[in-house]
Amino acid sequence: MGCFWGSEEVFRKIKGVTNTAVGFMGGKAKNPTYLSVCTNLTGHVEVVQATFNPKIISYEKLLEYFWKNHDPTTPNRQGLDFGTQYKSVIFYHNENQKKTAISSLKTAQKNFKNKIVTEIVKEGVFYPAEEYHQKYYMKKGGSSCSL
After folding, report:
1. Could you give all domains of the chain from N- to C-terminal order, each with its CATH number?
2. What single string gives the DSSP state of each residue in 32-88?
3. What is the pTM of this model?
């Protein structure tokens, strides 16, 4: 969804989301840092890891927030932020999540004129970003990047 600061703020405020953390996933380097990811050489994407209570909110509903809060038709870009770390991607944890994500993409496509470029990929290692990135807008009093 682009900049993980704004994306985390969206998910952090959803009733039923019990925890959020920002970090990196999908690349080849071990223990990437924000600065290394910004080089576009590690292959990592800025991500939000959201833990949720499925008795309060469903995975399907979380995916609706995902689609509504960024432009999934722009490769490697969200607003003024551009680079491979900003690509639109859903990392799934199991086959049920994969099927649900694929179905939600097909449904979301009806709401966009351009083709959705969001990738749906099996989760990899989640590397938490540095502490100063965690809950950035909550701590700094902002609300979002370009969301």
Report:
1. 4-140 (3.30.1060.10)
2. --HHHHTTT-S--EEEEEEEE-TTTS-HHHHHHHHHHTS-TTSTTEETTEESGGG--
3. 0.93
Contact indicator for 48, 40 with CB cutoff of 8 Å: no
Per-residue model confidence as pLDDT tens digits over 52-96 = 999 999 999 999 999 999 999 999 999 889 999 999 999 999 999
For residue 139, give the H/E element and its range: helix 136-140
Question: Would you tell me how many other CB atoms lie within 10 Å of the CB of residue 7?
Answer: 25
Residue by residue, DSSP assigns 82-102 as: ESGGG--EEEESSHHHHHHHH
Token digits of residue 69: 């809060």
Give the catalytic positions in this structure.
Answer: 3
Sign of the four-CA dihedral 36, 41, 42, 47: positive
Question: What is the distance between the alpha carbons of residues 11 and 133, in angstroms, rounded to a whole number?
Answer: 15
